[in-house]
Structure to design on (268 residues):
């Protein structure tokens, strides 16, 4: 175990799989004490098991980030167990294709729009307000929000996802302005094509195998680094932003996208 995070108490939402799980593992490997949170109890407990197996410290707290009460209980449990909160990683998210095949903007069901908004955007607002009393007591508090390349460019079959992720970027900046008085830094990460269950579902909605292969080729072809990223690679960026090494960084967005948004091209 490393020490970049050196005992910092880190709350990670959506940590049962994908980017959240990979980041939680990396944060533990770099010395963080991790509060794993998710609606998926089995997955969250598995993340804790892996952290402990590697010699780290972690607990699991079940939480539905759509619920203000759940988020307040999460922060209270984290602070009670570890004595405070230093880092809040608002990572929980969902995508239109998780919930429906009617993903065109003129077909998207109202309840899907509402769910994506509540999970991707409103939960960050709720989570920060719930964590603020504890973060204000930290000597090096940091908030990291998971945005997306969809904060910059529109992805197909993703109207609610695109809208909420664009809003996450600006909410991050607003939070950085308002929380600077408390010496709390706020940044966001913007992952691209990362190998996760969420990405798998995105492509699974394309029923025709040839069309699915073409779509995947298009995504990979747009990456200057010619492969999918990994959750652990995202985790290294999160750890840096959470650490005191990033003490002069706030209100900023960091692309972790293999160069996808740096150009208008596709490799052949």
């Amino acid at each position: 175990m490393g020490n970049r995070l050196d005992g910092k108490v880190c709350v990670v939402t959506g940590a049962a799989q994908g980017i959240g799980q990979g980041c939680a593992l990396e944060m533990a490997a770099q010395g963080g004490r991790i509060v794993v949170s998710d609606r998926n109890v089995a997955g969250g407990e598995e993340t804790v098991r892996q952290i402990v197996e590697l010699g780290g410290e972690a607990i699991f707290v079940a939480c539905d980030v759509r619920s203000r009460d759940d988020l307040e209980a999460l922060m209270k449990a984290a602070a009670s167990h570890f004595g405070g909160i230093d880092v809040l990683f608002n990572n929980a998210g969902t995508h239109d294709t998780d919930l429906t095949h009617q993903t065109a903007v003129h077909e998207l069901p109202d309840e899907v729009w509402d769910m994506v908004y509540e999970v991707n955007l409103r939960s960050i607002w709720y989570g920060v307000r719930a964590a603020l009393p504890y973060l204000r007591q930290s000597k090096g508090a940091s908030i990291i929000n998971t945005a997306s390349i969809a904060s910059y460019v529109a992805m197909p079959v993703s109207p609610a996802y695109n809208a909420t992720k664009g809003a996450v970027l600006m909410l991050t900046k607003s939070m950085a302005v308002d929380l600077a008085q408390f010496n709390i830094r706020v940044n966001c990460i913007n992952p691209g094509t990362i190998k996760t269950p969420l990405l798998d579902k995105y492509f699974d909605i394309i029923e025709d195998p040839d069309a699915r292969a073409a779509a995947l080729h298009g995504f990979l072809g747009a990456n200057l680094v010619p492969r999918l990223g990994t959750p652990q690679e995202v985790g290294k960026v999160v750890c840096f932003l959470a650490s005191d090494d990033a003490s002069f960084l706030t209100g900023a967005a960091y692309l972790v996208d293999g160069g996808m948004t740096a150009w208008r091209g596709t490799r052949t």
